[in-house]
Every structure is written in C-alpha cells, then in structure tokens.
C-alpha cells in the first residue's frame, strides 16, 4: 500500500474529466487500496481518483464514525435524485476552507465494485452529499466552483494572500 499525493485547487489537473473503467485488473484493486489508505490518513470521508491525478471513474467513501465501512464506487451513475439540502462542505483539495453547498437530499446510484460487480445504492444524509461531491471531482468540478462568483473571488484573493505571505516568510 502507498499514500498518494492529493492535488490542491487550483491545480489544472483537477479539471480533467475521468474516463470509465473498462478493465477490472489487479492495478485497479491496488489503486483502490492506495486511495483508501490516502483517504483514511488525510483524514477524509471520501476521495476521488481525480484528486490523486488518476483520471478514471473511481471513488472511495467511508462516512462511518468507526472508519470501518469502506465503499468503492467504480463508474458511478446517479439514476435518481430527490429533495434539496444545503450543508457545509470541505475538500482535501481545498484545505482550510468550508462553505455551504446545495445538493440533492437523496440519491440512488448505480456503480460497480473493484471486481466489476454492479450494485445499486440508496443514499441520504452525509453519504448522499459525499457521493455527489466525489462525482463532481470525476467531472472536473471542485466544490468552490459551485459557490457564488463573489465567494470564488474572495477565496482566490485569500489564496493569493497566503501565497504572498509564504513567499515573504521564505525570504525573511
Ligand atoms: O473529507 C471530506 N469531507 C467532506 C465534508 C462535507 C462534504 C464533503 C466532504 S468530502 C471531503 C473529502 C474530499 O475532498 N473528497 O473529495
Ligand atoms: Ni473533495
């Protein structure tokens, strides 16, 4: 197993669109194991392959408190979405920033596991939010891009300021 490096916004590689998985190989199982290790170590409740610079439709999620309920979603598709909720979100690719995002309250997802077996999952609450957040990554969307233009501008200004201060510390 290995911990992978997580890309940080605004890295342009986070904008790439993930391709469907066609081969359920030992390499895929290794990727899933490494992504799970990376997610638990971060720690986070989900991770999309896009975040570790692998542009395939692979997601790992564990929203349990005991961190013993790993879910692997390969080639996920939302086949039903109901209701709306606004919840506070964070992202391992956007460290230190949290904001409210509107998502569907309940989703039904069709996906495959790491061995290629198809399954259907009915999700609500944090699991439903996390699935939508991770599927956004596979489409090249980071949650800050779902905020208002004003909030995105403010966040970019904050990033620029942090960068300037880090450069100043490096000289001092
Ligand atoms: O760890 C994470 N927490 C989280 C909290 C609220 C909504 C979504 C998330 S996903 C995030 C991990 C991550 O960045 N996955 O892409
Ligand atoms: Ni994220």
Tell me about this structure.
This protein is an alpha+beta fold and 172 residues long. It has a single domain (12-166), classed as Alpha-Beta Complex (Peptide Deformylase). It has helices at 26-41, 125-138, 149-171, and strands at 46-48, 58-61, 71-82, 85-89, 99-103, 106-112, 118-124. The strands form 2 sheets. It has a 5-stranded antiparallel beta sheet with strand order 1-2-3-6-7. It has a two-stranded antiparallel ribbon with strand order 4-5. A hairpin with a 5-residue loop joins strand 6 (106-112) and strand 7. The chain is globular and about 55 Å long. The model has no long low-confidence stretch (mean pLDDT 97). The structure holds ligand GNR and nickel (II) ion. Residues 91-93, 133, 137 line the site of nickel (II) ion (NI). The site of nickel (II) ion (NI) has 5 residues, from helix 2.
Record keyword descriptors for this entry.
two-stranded antiparallel sheet, Peptide Deformylase, 172 residues, binds nickel (II) ion, binds ligand GNR, alpha+beta, 25% strand, 7 strands
Number of helices: 3
* Bound heterogens, unique: ligand GNR, nickel (II) ion
Main pleated-sheet profile: 5 strands, antiparallel
Contiguous low-pLDDT stretches (5 residues minimum) are: none
Beta percentage is 25-35%
CATH class: Alpha Beta
Shape: globular
CATH architecture: Alpha-Beta Complex
Average pLDDT for all residues: 97
For the record, give the distance between the C-alpha atoms at the N and C termini, rounded to a whole number.
39 Å
Order of helices and strands: HEEEEEEEHH
- Integer count of domains: 1
Number of strands: 7
């Amino acid at each position: 197993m290995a911990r992978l490096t997580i890309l940080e916004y605004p890295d342009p590689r986070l904008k790439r669109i993930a391709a469907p998985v066609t081969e359920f190989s030992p390499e895929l199982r290794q990727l899933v194991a490494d992504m799970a290790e990376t997610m638990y170590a971060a720690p986070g409740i989900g991770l999309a392959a896009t975040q570790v610079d692998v542009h395939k439709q692979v997601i790992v999620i564990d929203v349990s408190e005991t961190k013993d309920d790993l879910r692997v979603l390969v080639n996920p598709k939302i086949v039903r979405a109901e209701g709306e909720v606004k919840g506070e979100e964070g992202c391992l690719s956007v460290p230190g920033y949290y904001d409210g995002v509107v998502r569907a309250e309940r989703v039904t997802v069709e996906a495959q596991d790491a061995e290629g077996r198809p399954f259907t999952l009915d999700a609500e609450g944090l699991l439903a939010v996390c699935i939508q957040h991770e599927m956004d990554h596979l489409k090249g969307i980071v949650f800050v891009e779902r905020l208002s233009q004003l909030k995105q501008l403010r966040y970019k200004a904050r990033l620029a300021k942090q960068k300037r201060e880090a450069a100043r510390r490096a000289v001092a």
